[in-house]
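To illustrate this point, we now present one chain and its tokenised fold:
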Amino acid sequence: MSPYQTRPASQVRATSLGDRQTMAQLFRLDLLAPALLAVQSRLRHGFVVLALTLAALAGAALAPAVAGPVIVADIDSGRVLYAKQATDPWYPASVTKLMTAYLTLHALRAGQLRPDAPLTVSARAAAVIPSKMGFKPGVEVTVDNALKMMLVKSANDMAVVLAEGVGGSVENFAGMMNQAAEELGMGQSHFVNPNGLPDPGNRTSARDLAVLARTMLRQFPEYAQYFNIEALQMGKRVYKNTNGLVGRYPGVTGMKTGFICASGFNVVATAQRGGRRLLVVVLGAHSGVERTLIAASLFDRGFADSGWGGPGTLDTLPLPTSASPPDMRDAICGAGRGARGEEEAENAPQSASPLFALFKGGASDWETPVAGRTLPPRAALAAVPVFVGRYPGAPATAVAARRGQAQKGETASAYAADEDASPGAKALQKVKRPVARKNASASKQAEARHKPGKAEAGKKAHDKKAPAKNAAGKNRKTSDNDG
């Protein structure tokens, strides 16, 4: 019998005052019994909830290091040092911009474009969603600056500007991307746009991205600096590289990150140490920090080992195990996870959470070091200056450049460059001046014609010998400042 259950009255003997006091205390405990049982039940339930919560957090911490495709390869030999699901299809997100850069570098080498050639921001480019620079239609950006903004800031609008500059339109450029992918042997890749924004038609694999990265570095070594810029500065603004390895990991030589909810956090990264060059691809990490730490640990293992065998080369990896990319939207951007994006990892501490280290078991030997891996804070970044216009300090639009200065009201949003021949300008040539400005000019002209006294006084002040008919406002040549 439980000490907190009520006894029958016949079992209670009250032969003395002490017995009666004991009985009273017993009955008071009986009254507390339901509350105490409820507390006990809640404590038991709390321990269960805590255990489930820890398990869920452990699973979330563990998933990035064991779920997404990864690959480690030697850049010079093409030998694969480690691979996991490397040929499975995946949404590329902004690592798509590596292919955009690849085609742009081809155009530069072929002489189709010059680094200082101006490209015009089209209405289509200005309308894309962030991450972007946010320039208005009509603004001019050189090929060199557009490349830097796309690769460092991951600017979606600059990817469209380059696509229109190289291919004439986004659709034509997408065809060029797919043709290049086929020629490079990127069998799991297909591209619909130049920036990797969400589209079911976009797909790639860790192996294909490794092929692309290796090809770019071997074919265009003179342009390698584009992929390792620490930061950009335009005016007072500083844009840090979205690649968390840049400025933190010794020997990193850059490349590109990517993120959409469906893909998780992706990165293609390269590093050099002791004369050896490695590349790492990580797809589907659950945060920018974990993406960086996984890549760092893979580099650690790759540079530490010298006699590995590996699963062959990039050309001999097994076929994919699935036909379509998984959608990670719920896991990455589900309810309660807040806003996600490339910028979230720029200044975040580059260290695994305690739960990540506590539950990081069962992963391959290649990924085990992630459990205790940390990276130091970024050192002071060397920002590379960028600008809009054809040269530093130049007007942002071709209209302003032709007139010598940006007149009041003549901003990029007013109207496009009607004489600019760069691709993308066609979409802007039909944009006209604001009606309000046109009406204001007409009213000023009419006012000047109907007030000959003021015109005469102004003319006499500049030329006392002017003929009378000019003083009266007749046959007078209109100047650039009239109206």
